[in-house]
Amino acid sequence: MADTLSGPALGELLAELQSYGVRVEDTIQARRGGAGPSDAGMIRVEGVPVTFPFTADYVADSPYVLQPEGDEGSWGVYREGRRLAGAEVPPRPRFYDMTTADGIPYWKIALLHLDSLASTVIQTCLYWGKDDQCRFCGIELSLEAGRTIPVKKPEHLAEVAVAAKELDGAVDVTLTSGTTGGADKGARYLGKCARAIKAASGLPVQAQFEPPDDLSVLEEIKEQGVDSVGMHLESFDPGVLAYVAPAKARTGVAGYFRAWQRAVEIFGRGQVSTYVILGMGEDLQMTIDGCKRAIDAGVYPFVVPLRPVPGSLMGDKVPPPAEYVESLYREVAPYLAVNGLASWEVHAGCARCGACSALAAYERHGEPPSGGRQLPILNVR
Ligand code: SF4
């Protein structure tokens, strides 16, 4: 049996699982569509949360296999028959079997991402089906598939949050939304939902939205109980941004920095984060410099490999190679540390959960051991 993996060696394995995907030899909890990373198996490897592609076509070529092992609930990650690490597959959340008084199944209102309760409170987006649609996003796909409902009511979210906390150990709530036509881009409704959730469950809440035209909305949602915010620029490369997210490109890198700086004043350093998606053709050095500028401003860059959503405008793509993603983790993790930002100090949301990235594994152990990579580079594609 291999020694327990940790630090950068574990980080490398997680990065590989997220780039190549994992073939699963039994049923596990997963996400198939929606806003944010989908086609996601959700497990813990050596205790560290990770999501990975497992239904996309390219996963069939992955050398990584997740298979059950003797005892109830214990699993292992294998490559070519060799056991690399222990894994834990969370059970189906018990709150999924509950419904609201008006018959809405709780799992159509929010899902449990390991220990984070996540919900897309408005499942439609102003840009969907138009030239402005973000090419990596699948927000309305799960709606079209009947796996969720268009708008989640604050009182329903509060009800589900209490159940998820008490029955399944949820420790925070991650709320996101499609962009609405209003000047607040949907942020005010997220604030309303956060207030109801906090009053009922006391759980910390992250709200994710596009920067509102009027930044005073940020103070309002803080008042309403939002603890952390995500305003996702997606890419620091303006050319890539203009292609993959035209509407966000109109706000531009400078517009996001203005919104982030105001948010850091209100929510605090490290309580503001942005997704940075790798594998969309971005310039690497521009991306590293952008992440460092964001960190200087008190913003946590949640660096993730592209997770192509089946059915989205990038559904036919594949994630970037693990080595490429790791090269960025190795730059960003130490820079976070010397600037006093850390994923484990984020109150709520994706940067706190960390499962869709391997950055936290690099953070936890500072500088990589000498000699860099510990896993051999695989040429499976
Ligand atoms: S980082 Fe965690 S909360 Fe965010 S989308 Fe991934 S699994 Fe869900």
Can you describe this structure?
This protein has about 375 residues and is α/β, with parallel strands linked by helices. It folds into two domains: about 5-90, no CATH class; about 95-365, Aldolase class I (TIM Barrel, Alpha-Beta Barrel). It is about 30% helix and about 20% strand. Helix 4 (about 185-200) packs parallel to helix 5 (about 215-225) and helix 8 packs parallel to helix 9 (about 320-340). Iron/sulfur cluster binds near residues 350 and 355.
Mean pLDDT metric: 92
Q: What is the quaternary state of this protein?
A: single chain
Distance between the amino and carboxyl termini = 29 Å
The CATH architecture classification of the largest domain is Alpha-Beta Barrel
The small-molecule ligands in this entry are: iron/sulfur cluster
- Overall morphology: globular
> Structural class given helices, strands, pairing?
alpha/beta
Q: Approximately how much beta-strand content do the residues carry?
A: 15-25%
- The third-level CATH topology of the largest domain is TIM Barrel
CATH class of the largest domain: Alpha Beta
